Amino acid sequence: MGDFFIWLFFFLIVIAILAMLVFQLIALIDLEFDYINPYQTASRINRVVLPEFTTQGVLCFLYLITGHWVILLYCVPCLYYNVKLYTQRRHLIDVTEIFNMLSWEKKQRIFKLVHTAILLVISLFWVIYSALELDEFDL
Asked: pTM (2 decimals)?
């Protein structure tokens, strides 16, 4: 029974990360089509970057302490990239360079979005599997 709730909690964390990435990508697309100005885009994205990094780190730590090694190995490259960006102080978007870096920033977030979507599918599979396993034991 506990395994079901653990996977459900992981699933909700992955949805939160996915929502933050979609929010950042929408802000960049709005800037590209000139719906908002660069200052608003940078402030919106910069406000969400550290919570995204923290949530990704917490998720990897939870995979580590619960013993889900394969999923942890899948998440570690993205966590390493986030830590690398943070230590090099390239995690925040600069208002003056946002148009020069727009293509790169979009590609970066699309890659993270695909990575997190795959993680979402894996987590959904394990939520369903553990729910069916839980139902099997109740009979």
From this structure: 0.93
